[in-house]
Amino acid sequence: MGSKALQEEKVVKILRASYYVFLVIIIFLTLFGLVEAVKEYATTGVVTIGEWFVEFDWPFANFAKPVSYLTVSLIAFFALYLEFHKDAFKRLSPSLRRALFILGVIAAFVCFYETLYNFTVWNALITRDAMKGIMRIDYLNINYPNPKIPWSLPFATKIFSAFLVISLYFLYFVNRVESELRRS
């Protein structure tokens, strides 16, 4: 085996290990977030979606919040998942690949809209608070569509931004696979 092949094999092993690390991070943070949401609902009768993910910094103050680890892990995991399963995707029928592409376009649109909407609302609330001399950027929520289940705006914005990146990467991936299939 040549040195280039050995180097390629090492890279694949590192990427596969990273894939599983990102999966563990996603599962751990999601489960921990659900437990915290259930505890909040049990004590207050209200749950703010994503609030736990922006309440504290880890591993030290002013570093990163759990939502940041979650969004990065989601993007990296999904990209690696697609790359590791590219051959299986190639074996799908052309019409199914096209249908998945259309679903990806719809997902990209919805995620773009939600990201834009959340940023707009979040910015308006930050501006309102700033005019009052208050700065609580990470603690702003939106009580829409259900006042009993508000969403943390930093959480919603980061999650929908991550899903936007994922859906755009999926569209890129599908086009790249289609190009490879046309060339072969």
DSSP strand tally: 2
Specify Rg, calculated over alpha carbons.
20 Å
Helix content, binned percent: over 70%
Regions with little confidence, pLDDT below 50 for 5+ residues: none
Which class do the helix and strand fractions yield? mainly alpha
SSE order: HHHHHEEH
- The end-to-end span amounts to 26 Å
Strand content: under 5%
* Annotation field: number of helices: 6
Strand order of the largest sheet: 1-2
Biggest pleated sheet: 2 strands, antiparallel
Shape: globular
Mean pLDDT: 94
Number of domains: 1
Written overview of the protein:
- By secondary structure, the protein is an all-alpha fold.
- The protein is built from six helices and two strands, in the order αααααββα.
- The protein has a two-stranded antiparallel ribbon with strand order 1-2.
- The longest helix has 42 residues.
- The two termini are 26 Å apart.
